[in-house]
Amino acid sequence: NAGVTQTPKFQVLKTGQSMTLQCAQDMNHNSMYWYRQDPGMGLRLIYYSASEGTTDKGEVPNGYNVSRLNKREFSLRLESAAPSQTSVYFCASSDNYIQYFGAGTRLSVL
Amino acid sequence: DQQVKQNSPSLSVQEGRISILNCDYTNSMFDYFLWYKKYPAEGPTFLISISSIKDKNEDGRFTVFLNKSAKHLSLHIVPSQPGDSAVYFCAASSNSGYALNFGKGTSLLVTP
Questions:
Q1: What are the beta bridge partners of residue B39?
Q2: CA–CA separation, A74 and A58 (whole Å)
Q3: What is the CA radius of gyration of chain A?
Q4: What is the SS3 assignment for chain A?
Q5: Given its phi and psi angles, is residue A53 left (phi above 0), alpha (psi -120 to 50 degrees) or beta?
Q6: Chain A within 8 Å of B105 (Cβ-Cβ)?
Q7: Most buried of the four, A53, A92, B58, B75, by CB within 10 Å?
Q8: Which residues pair with B83 in a beta bridge?
Q9: Which tens digit of pLDDT belongs to each residue from A23-71?
Q10: Distance from CA of B1 to the nearest CA of A (A)
């Protein structure tokens, strides 16, 4: 049982480049989330999708867009990457209060 | 504004002793609280949770206590083992949705 799968695991971008972080879950959960974690900080919510076809902003949405492609997949897009977006990104899914996380994508923007 | 606070960035405990990790919150609308454990280069994994209608929940070596009047919860690990060394995050949610508010984490080191 894979749970929540994130790709890629690592990525280095130059300022201004774009990229999409992929997330897929196989637990048939309705809700999916994107968080970022910075050194000395907890996880901060970027965007979430309560159900297929809906998305909502979290605490730190600026500079990001999301797509809930289907029930399994929830992608996060950086249209024009900035050094401030250097972080570790976690995707999660849930059907109740307990969220299950992927292993993360470590992104560096130079 | 940080609604969930973990004021101790780190904690060191000897193997076999009790580890107590603390968490405070400010939002009285929170009704569900969770603890996650995170190893380096891995995602957070769910450890234990408690509903606001309870004051204690136990799962093996892990017990979470909730004091609603003080807006405080704590995680007790007894006995502590070296494999418990990790970063522990406190998180809270309100009944308006399932989005979690996380604290900054406490790094626990259990020494042999």
A1: none
A2: 15
A3: 13
A4: CCCEEEECCEEEECCCCCEEEEEEECCCCCEEEEEEECCCCCEEEEEEECCCCCCEECCCCCCEEEEECCCCEEEEEECCCCHHHCEEEEEEEECCCCEEECCCEEEEEC
A5: left
A6: yes
A7: A92
A8: none
A9: 999 999 999 999 999 988 889 999 999 998 899 999 999 999 999 989 9
A10: 10
Q: What is the mean pLDDT of residues A3-25?
A: 96
B76: its two tokens: 């007790």
DSSP-derived secondary structure for B73-108? EEEEESS--GGG-EEEEEEEEETT-SPPEE---EEE
As a whole number of Å, the CA-based R_g of chain B is 13
- For B94, the closest chain A residue by CA position comes to A97
Q: What is the pLDDT of residues B39-73, one digit of tens each?
A: 999 999 999 999 999 999 999 999 999 999 999 99
